[in-house]
Amino acid sequence: MNVFPKNTTFKYNWRTYQKRILDNIDNYLHDNHLHISAPPGSGKTVLGLEIMLRLGKPTLIVAPTLAIKNQWIQRFCELFLNMETAPGWISSDIKNPGIITVTTYQGIHSASGADEEVEDQIKKSSKVSVAEIIKKLAKQKVGTLILDEAHHLKNAWWRSLMELKDTINPTVVALTATPPFDVSGSDWQKYIQLNGPIDVEISVPELMIEGDLCPHQDLVYFTSPSKEEEKKIEYHHRQATIFFEEIKSDNRLLEAIEQHPVYLNPAFHLEWIYENISSYTSGLVYLHFRGKEILDIHFNIIGDQQKFVPEFDFFWMEELLDFYLIMDEINFKKYEEHRTDLVNRLRRAGFLEQRTVSFYNNKNLNHILNSSIGKLQGIKEIVDFEFSILKDDLRMVILTDFIKKEYLIDKDHNVLSLDKIGAVPIFEKLRRENGQNKKIGILTGSLVIIPVSAKNIFEQFCIKKSLFEVSFSSLYYDENYLVISLTEKIKHDVVHIITEIFQSGEIHILIGTKSLLGEGWDAPKMNSLVLASFISSFVLSNQMRGRVIRTDKDNINKTGNIWHLICFDCHDHNGGQDFINMRKRFKTFVGISYKSAPTIENNFERLNVKSLESKEELLEVNQKFFAWAKDRTSLIERWAVALGKGNILVEEIEVPSMNMTGMEKLKMDYLAKMSGNFAKIIGSTILLFWQDLLLGLLRNIDEINYIKSFSILVSLLGIAGLIVYGGKLYRSTKQYLRYKDIGRQLSSLAEVVLYGLIHEKVIRTPIDKLKIVSTSDKNKNAFCYLSGGSQYENTHFIQTLQELVSQIDNPRYLLKQKRSLFFLKKICIIQYLIFSQEIREVQSSLKSYGIK
């Protein structure tokens, strides 16, 4: 029986993919779960509400924030009930559930009193236990549980929800834009246990074709550190160089490494070596650098037939110091004083923290780059540029991590030095240098500032919301701005009001925090976004970026620019950790490429940024991206061209030919076997025709009967040889052809990976729906991807295959079956590092040292 009013219907038409999901809802709900993954702007909220109506049972909706919680109620009233005020049967109080109850993840968990920092609407004096809440939900006969932004995986929240789910056994509808693919395996299993396997995945290209997302582009802006920051960075690198030069000539360290048991008697420590191959190798690299001879036994143990020793650099110094100072205290006990001195100096310099030695991926250095004040100037230049192009049509949001209220003062002039990144410092930077008269505002959970020109429209929205106790005051040092006094009564409505003011154009640039505006917040007219956040997680990065790619029903030609800030470290050949983190972010961003033939990809390489070495090159790159940002018409055209090539995204692995040397050796083995078998067939053929040859030559000899008998025996041997070696030739030829092409080689490995993941139940899609696609290019590099699986399955397939074909840095052993004369089998252990090397090479080396 449906508990909702009969006239409760969605007042618009369904999008194509929404209708497809709704038409197949019974098939998806076979396990009492429906799990949907779709990008921001795809209409997951209205889809969840419609599914709720079709299920027809009292419903509990759980959202991650108060803003999103209120959004569910607003959308239902506006789009299904056609009213502004929620009816009494919709409750936002988990302790008093209604036919529809909307709450937050924190609300359910904090009801038990386990969380001291509870949401504002939950009073500590009125807490009830989770068991009591479940009892009330059961009494209300709640049969549907909707989990919005279902990727929220905090353990405490998960336990509370699992307890609720197991008790009332509802139909679970899970909605997310970003499944947490980057969490641990155990956390992923918890995610699936709560939400069920992903049933439906909607891709960005599919939404673009449907016209449900606007054309958008990722743009980067490179900044340089401030003078003060540059001094700190130079000092950091100078100290690192001093340490490096010292280690290069440290005789005490050389003695300690040279006298370590694994270098004196490596054959007795093979298990330790293979468990700590990086540490072992770092010692060899250092010994070689110091002019010490590396004996053949070490190369045989590592499996290096070429006897190549890498150059001693910062990477190997980190490995070496980790080995000497942290990993092995027992064998370096004799050098305790020397080690203690090194440890203390490394800690003082900031190169050793939490038992980790790091010279470049260093916490202090990363903080300087991530929060560089140079980014403030970069934000200002981006804002000025975008406003010069769009003028009053600009709707820009700047998202940052912190508010930094301490930069607001109660004096006539604010001349505080802006030496940190935050909402207020960004506001101050733009306010102080606002030659274009831009309308700037701040929207955070505890601070709201609007231009004085927006006062009237703000008051109008307050009246519309029946808010009559709102007060505001002028910004102490600038009467052109108003500070809204936030009370508990109006706090939750202010977000909606400021959003509407921004949408109307009375605010051009809205500065906010990622915690409030980074997830679930909706402002379709936004056309430019600056990400001034340092978060690089898969989930939050995509959530923040998703705010600007939504379509605007009032502007069919809307486009979106997404700006990413990078503080570049010219002293680091990789550009610094800020640049490295940005590359990681882009693995989660699907967008248009800047190649001559545009494609849809999800990596940093699609931006076509070449190697950077100087500040002049940074300026050139910035100007190139300003040109792309300006030409929004071309952006629409490039999306059209790229979408014309297809709308299905696949995650692909590219394997350089050098990583397939083991397979190349295998191919040559099969070629040798094929050649050998062919020679044996020739011999068998000669034996087969022995009879005619012999009888022709010896037909006048009296002992013809004896010769005839012997030739028959030889012919039988020839027939047997043809059968045996003919089969071997067929098999070896087949295997040679299979491994002749590097793409086929990779396909063979991929097949093993696929069946292994199916056996381990990591991949659950039926095998008949899966297909391995593998190719190679003219440079003998191989490419491979899995077609037909879910995004999670495809990702794990690629990751596992990547591990299999990557260069091995910690060898293990394989059992390799070999055939010898008379088809007898023998098993020998070989090193995984070199795949096909015979163990007897190592054994012979050991014997030369008198070791059996």
Automatic annotation (TrEMBL):
Pfam family, one: ResIII
Alphabetically ordered keywords of this record: Membrane, Transmembrane, Transmembrane helix
InterPro entries assigned to the protein according to its UniProt record, in alphabetical order: AAA+_ATPase, Helicase/UvrB_N, Helicase_ATP-bd, Helicase_Restrict-Modif_Enz, P-loop_NTPase
TM helices/strands, residue ranges: 710-730
Any one GO molecular-function label of the UniProt entry: ATP binding
Entry GO terms, CC: cytosol
Domain Helicase ATP-binding intervals: 25-197
Designated name of the protein: Type III restriction enzyme, res subunit
Organism, scientific name: Chryseobacterium culicis
